[in-house]
Amino acid sequence: METQAAPREYRWRMPGNWWTRNRHYFNYMLREFSSVPMALWMLWLLVEIQRAGGAASQYQPHGSPAFIAFSVIVLLFSLYHSVTFLSLAGTILHFKVFDRPVPSRLIVLAMFGMWLVASVVVAFVLVWFAR
Amino acid sequence: MDFESYDVLVVGGGLAGIRAAIAAVEANPRARVGMVSKVYPMRSHTVSAEGGAAAVMASNDSYETHAFDTIKGSDYLADQDVVEAFVREAPVEVIQMEHWGCPWSRNPDGTIAVRPFGGMTTWRTCFAADKTGFHMLHAVFQTSLKYEQIIRHDEAFVTKLLIEDSRCVGVVALDIRTGRFDAITAKSVILATGGLGRVYAFTTNGNICTGDGMALAYRAGVGLKDMEMVQFHPTGLPFTGILITEAVRGEGGYLFNNQGERFLKRYVPNKMELGPRDIISRAMITEFEAGRGFEGPHGKYMHLDVRHLGEDVIDRKLPFMRELGREFMGIDIVHDPIPVRPVQHYMMGGVDSDISGATPVLGLYAAGECANVGLNGGNRLGSNSLSECLVFGAAAGRAAAYYASSAKPVTANPVDAMLWDEARRVETEYLEKKTGTERIAVIREEMQKEMDTGAGVFRDRDGLSRLARNLGGLRDRFERIKIDDSSRTFNTEVLAALELDFMLEVSTAIAFSALAREESRGAHARRDFPERDDAKFLKHTLAFRTNALAPRLEYRDVKITNFQPQARSY
Amino acid sequence: MADKTLSIKATRFDPQHDEKPRLQSYEVPFYDESMVVLDALNYIKSHVDGSLSYRWSCRMGICGSCGMMVNGVPKLTCSAFLRDYWPRPVVVEPLNNFPIIRDLVIDMDDFMHKLKAIKPWIIRKQDIPLGAGEHRQTNEQIDDFRQFSQCINCMLCYAACPVYGLNGEFLGPAATALGRRYNLDSRDEGLKIRLPVIAEAEGIWECSFVGECSVVCPKGVDPAKAIQQTKLDTTLRFVLPYGSRE
């Protein structure tokens, strides 16, 4: 009656496939996973830069369809990662202008705006130096 | 076997209980203070309170007006010395809550704002949007976490008070998780277990409001005072009974019958929707009986209309109401009227206690809704209850700590025996019982229906007699309940049985107290005695438990100081 | 009126008899469009099987007792309407990521520890006396922390968080949001005192912004926002210690 040990509890164990059970979890894993192909592509880019550094005039970027396909996939991943990241900026950043909180939509818009501007500037620089 | 010994043990973890625990520790920082609650404290029903807490804060207000409003609101059954002490302490408690983090809504200058409320002649209800109880409970609970001296026993159900030598020395508590019985001894015990709404079928109250503390005190020989005074709140949602706060009317909402008429002009022409709850509930039932209510699948109802307030005001002052309307009724109160009907809400009656929370049993105190300290009399004004929990929770905490500092220690032997007896009682009657024919829920639902019918807004002798008889029958059937759950671990069926046992006790006290009060006063409205009778009944009813069905009833004069009883009209 | 029924499968687990939890099926009459999953559980307990154990109280979404997994999603069963599931069966399980005590009842001791760990009370260098009245505070100042003060401690967010599921040491969404509620309260001066618990490795930094906590929160607290904002503010404090951040 009185002296009773605490009853045994059932310990929770995360199922290995937890991230397949819910669309949000899956999208999250996709977002996080995207850093892997992006990292691989970066390494490949370093290799290409090294190759181009050796003989600038004869440099031919690896033109095989496999590389182009991989680049497109990585582009999609990086766009997905960037869009999700920038969309969340409105949640993360919080500040007041004239004592009133800046609405999160405005912050997100500004982020995308800056991304666009930065992309244009980088593209311009690359094209200019390529000439 | 577990032996803890406290100076002060609080039973119940709601606003009054936690406030009492903190007050005890602040009165005596070396006191050992325990808090037993059958649920985690943030689940206490305080959390659902919405409207606000009344206090004299504004410069155009006075203690005398707050006292008069409360006494008139009580239909002169309140003890006036208690009321006068209460109105002086309430503002102090409001400030204390603010210091503890309660997010009171503010005036533009940063001071605590007040809003109008039923039966109050001036604006004095402090509020935290329309979730005042939620914010107050969380503020006081979270603040209590910083006091290391307060030791909590969460999810422990008190089945019996330990009385030894005419003094309360603690409780027997069932640890819900393990099924183990503990004697928790203490030099003083404060009951703060809340109301008993679940004895009715249609109530705003949550599942846990089963009158536990009242039944515990009743069984320990303490009188239950004014049990016939049950408050019906005018505006509950049909089917669920979910509360639509009086603040909706405070902010300017209108009540319409099916003729599109603001019918209250025929009942409380001066206050209209801000009349006291008992009169408005009676008005609505009278209108229903005259065929002027809307008909719905879940009974008759009236329309509570706030469309004219506009979305801005609703989102700022009544956001939770908008959420409730959307979630549970599929309506948007900005565009739709709210269907409402009278619903059991609060218990003015309760454990006989005095201005410091003391009951007639030495070492036993009570505060909050489970107590009847004499503040609310025959009818409570809205927003007085949250203030009451603070004022009398604090008073009881201090009184208990003071008493405990010079009380004799509790001796082990008699407690041992009492613990054994109680544990065996519960085990034989519930856990180990193999025979039984009645389902707990069937008896409970019948009791609830009987209470709704016999002890509702309007009562009469036949209805109450029938109710009393039927409750006796239900008590007999209760002896034959069957329990499906024989587990020791988190057995909620045994809990339900223990709660039903308590509910049958308190509902019987209500029925007999109501039968004996042959007048109409406050919330107690007798069709066969429609007038107030000060000559015979300017007294408190005290119900004492007997071994028969009917309690022994005594009467005690109401304490009058400055306000002579007058006719009550608004 | 047609006699509609709905099929409920509920987790059963009694440590005295069972090695592990199992699902048990029940049929429940679906007689009113306003019925919620909690009503179905209450019907089972009242009329079919009194041994089914679960927590509930207010039935209006404010006490936080009745959180359970409903078809794999953490929900308050008092606000999960049967009409949204019928005619498909409804599977009711205890909240994920917590140890199970019995049937649908989980052990929330860990959460209660974390609640206390973030010191959820007003901390001031010097308390003002009661006689001085209230701290002056405007409704706009309350708006700064209002959202984070709406938490009912229902723990749906902990059930939704895979990080908490994998690492029970993680401080978690509700505790962090409540810590932020106090840090942003103009009356509070306790940020530095709370910082060690919040900014430690198992505090906010375990969070990788899955965001599911905010999706399931029934009161719109947005704990994910609270955590990310805390990360930003904590980092800026570290980088610019002399700046008066909050």
Explain this structure to me?
The complex is a heterotrimer of chains A (131), B (570) and C (246). Chain A has 131 residues and is mainly α. Chain A contains 5 helices and 2 strands. In chain A, strand 1 and strand 2 form a beta hairpin. The longest helix of chain A is centred in the last third of the chain and has 27 residues. Chain B folds into 3 domains: 293 residues, FAD/NAD(P)-binding domain; 108 residues, Flavocytochrome C3, Chain A, domain 1 (Alpha-Beta Complex); 119 residues, Up-down Bundle (Methane Monooxygenase Hydroxylase, Chain G, domain 1). Chain B is 36% helix and 18% strand. In chain B, the strands form 5 sheets. In chain B, strands 1, 2, 6, 7, 8, 9 and 16 form a 7-stranded mixed beta sheet that branches. Chain C folds into 2 domains: 102 residues, Beta-grasp domain (Ubiquitin-like (UB roll), Roll); 131 residues, Fumarate Reductase Iron-sulfur Protein, Chain B, domain 2 (Orthogonal Bundle). By secondary structure, chain C is an alpha+beta fold. The termini of chain C are far apart. The longest helix of chain C has 17 residues. Chain C is built from 9 helices and 7 strands. The chains are: A mainly alpha (131), B alpha/beta (570), C alpha+beta (246). Chains B and C meet through helix 3, helix 4, helix 9, helix 12 and helix 14 of B and helix 1, helix 2 and helix 3 of C.
